[in-house]
Structures are given as structure tokens and as C-alpha cells.
Amino acid sequence: MKLDFDCVVVGAGIAGMTAAIYLKRSNLNVLILDNDAPGGLLNKISVVENYPGFTSISGPDLAYKIYEQVNNLGIEIRYGKVLSIKNHQVITDLETITTNKIILAIGRKARKLDNTNNLKNVSYCALCDANLYKDKIVAIVGYSNSALEEALYLSDICRKVIIIGRGTNFKGEDSLISKVKNKDNIDINLDCNIKSLESDNNILNKIITDKGEFIVDGMFVAIGYEPNTDFLDNIVKDNGYIIVDDKMKTNIDYIFACGDIIKKDVYQLTTAVGEATIAAINVKKEIK
Q1: Neighbouring C-beta atoms of residue 159, cutoff 10 Å
Q2: Which of 145, 160, 198, 281 could form a disulfide with 172 if both were Cys (CB 3.0 to 4.6 A apart)?
Q3: What CA–CA distance (Å, rounded) separates 74 from 61?
């Protein structure tokens, strides 16, 4: 079989672009494949303050800087939704691509809150939609780092931000917790569980919890993420997360994985970059 590429990287987030940079600099013919804009979830992060080299940078700006490196190296990017992978073939809704190796760096998607699909004023991205609620009252559901970051961003735009978290304590960085607690227009409600949502014409207007009722103009949800691995039938997974060895290799000999799609303890930008580097270097070693 004539191969189209030495390696196809599925995913154009920080892990995927990092892997592609290393592969290209190793003189391999590499393709990045995704169905969204380069950057992935980075494009939905308002501020990054724990990435080496940048005291503070927006997620989209960091994504663009990495994309510039990819572009300057002449790495090809194609768009399409991956439907399946088999026999060194990546099958998308637009084409079939043959490749020696594959690196999966698809990342994760936001976990949905039950009973919100039909509500028009429920969002999963403050950076995307905060301006729709300027000087209004919004709720943010969640109590981890992502919820804290969203709450801080919203607090600079909205009149009031109501945090609703089911945990008894925040699960986030101390610096973020301190900033949230010092914001006058952030109302913190922990150990608080949503019982029901009231709406009118698919517009949410009241959140009923076991700690009281909240009248809102909109609601943002930040309750974690889940992996995009439903289409991968033959790869060993744990609760949707791909199992890899110390070389970032899956149970299928020609497929590697890195970033937030794999089973691990720490999900950070820096760990995703490290895993992508390991995957790319080991792909290079295996391609003679």
C-alpha cells in the first residue's frame, strides 16, 4: 500500500500541534487532521497563567503562537471528522488517508449538564458568550479550576456571578480560589445541588437548588470534561480514556496517543506538551 503520510496527528490542540512540530523537524511527512480550528480547548480559555514563558496570556493567543510555528514549518492541516481508524487508514467524512503511524491527540469535550439541551441561554464557554450577558446576572455551575476561571472572566463583564458547586470545597488552585473570594460580585454557593431548572420559551430564568432559588439571565456550565473516543473500537480504554505505555503507545502497534485523551493523573497544558513530545520522538524511532 502506498502511504500518504509518515504520520497523521489527529487533533490540532496544543498536544497535536506539538507532536506535529517535533515530527516535521525530524524530517517526517506529517499531517494534522481536525474538524475545528487549531487550538482546541485553548480557544475557550480566557487567561493562562501557568504556562512557562508567559506570565499571562489568553488561550487563543497561545494557540495562535503555536499555530504560527506549525504554519512556518509548512505542516499541512486538513479538516474533517474522523469516523474510524483501521489498517493504517484514517477514515473521515471527507476522505480516507493512509499513514505509517498515527498520533491521537483529540482532547476532551465539555461534559453536559442534564436537562439543558433545549435551553437557549446555557453556555459551556464564557470566553465565547460572556458579552451576551453584559451587566446581567449569570450562574456558573462547577467548583474546579475551569469553573473558577470562568467565574473570574464573567465577573468582569456581568453584574453578578453566582457559583453553584456541589462540592463542599473548591477543587482548584489556591491563587484562583483567592481571586474568586475577593471579587465583590461573585456569590459563592458550595455544597449546593441543583434540583430543577425553570424556563419560559426555552429561556432559563430560575435555578432551584437545595440551598435556595436563583433568578438568572443565563447559566454557564463547567463541570469537567469527557474524552472524544467513541469512534475508537479496538483501542483499550478506561472509562473512555485511552491506555498508553511510557512511550505513549496504545495496544495497537502503529497508534500512539497523548494529551487529555489518555488515562493519567494530571491534565494540564504542560503535561500534554510533554506527552506529545514523547509520542513524536518514539514515532520517529520506529520509522526507519
Answers
A1: 13
A2: 145
A3: 20
Q: Pairing mode, if any, of strands 241-242 and 237-238?
A: antiparallel
**Joined grid coordinates for residue 96:** 480516507
Structural domains in the chain?
A: 5-110+225-286 (3.50.50.60), 122-221 (3.50.50.60)
Question: What backbone phi and psi angles, to 5 degrees, belong to 189?
Answer: -135, 95
Which DSSP string do the residues of 162-230 spell out, in sequence order? EEE-SSSS-BS-HHHHHHHHT-TTEEEE-S--EEEEEEETTEEEEEEETTEEEE-SEEEE---EEE--T
Q: Which of 222, 46, 234, 241 is nearest to 122 (CA)?
A: 222
Digit-coded pLDDT (tens) for 182-240: 999 999 999 999 999 999 999 999 999 999 999 999 999 999 889 989 889 899 999 99
Task: Quote the cell numbers at residue 15.
Answer: 498536544
pLDDT digits (tens, 9 = 90+) for 137-178: 999 999 999 999 999 999 999 999 999 999 999 998 999 999
Helix residue ranges per DSSP H, the chain? 14-25, 59-72, 126-129, 145-155, 174-181, 269-286
- Residues 81 and 73: their CA atoms lie apart, in Å, by 24
Query: What pTM does this model have?
Result: 0.89
Q: How far apart are CA 209 and CA 194, in angstroms?
A: 4
